[in-house]
Design goal:
Blueprint (H helix, E strand, L loop, with lengths): L1 E7 L7 E9 L10 E4 L1 H12 L4 E3 L2 E4 L10 H14 L13 H17 L19
Parallel strand pairs: 2-5
Antiparallel strand pairs: 1-2, 1-3, 4-5
């Protein structure tokens, strides 16, 4: 018998399962669960959809074939790094900062603050701004 194994996902009320593979119990031992037993007809249907990278439905379950990758980093991590970089140069914004490059620091700090808006659709492509070369006095 052929089985379709899937991964349960917590979704907002939608019965979507992530495709985890086809398994044949005449060849493989230890078919992963949860799974659905497939007739030859259902197997051909599912295999065709899988080969075309199309989601499909079996037994009222939506099987997702291509699931977008989750970002490897989170916005919490990004904001924490950004906030740390801002803290390290807070002193450049004080009225008694002796440097002559205050406007460079203002620009740098604004670029840091804009990171969430600038990269809102692609967290993995963030390019961190370079701080001004030195603290010019």
């Amino acid at each position: 018998m052929i089985y379709l194994s899937y991964i349960e996902t917590p979704t907002s009320g939608i019965a979507t399962k992530i495709f985890n593979g086809f398994y044949d119990d005449t060849i493989q031992i230890g078919i992963p669960t949860p799974n659905i037993e497939l007739t030859q007809e259902l197997y051909q249907y599912a295999l065709e959809r899988f080969n075309n990278h199309e989601n499909f439905t079996i037994d009222e379950l939506v099987i997702a074939v291509d699931v977008p990758e989750q970002p490897s980093i989170s916005w919490d991590i990004i904001r924490s790094k950004r906030n740390g970089l801002l803290r390290t140069c807070d002193f450049t914004q004080l009225p008694d900062y002796p440097g002559t490059n205050k406007s460079d620091w203002v620009s740098y700090r604004q670029l840091l603050r804009d990171i969430p808006q600038t990269y809102s659709t692609d967290i993995n492509s963030i390019v961190w701004p370079t701080p001004p070369n030195s603290i010019e006095v």
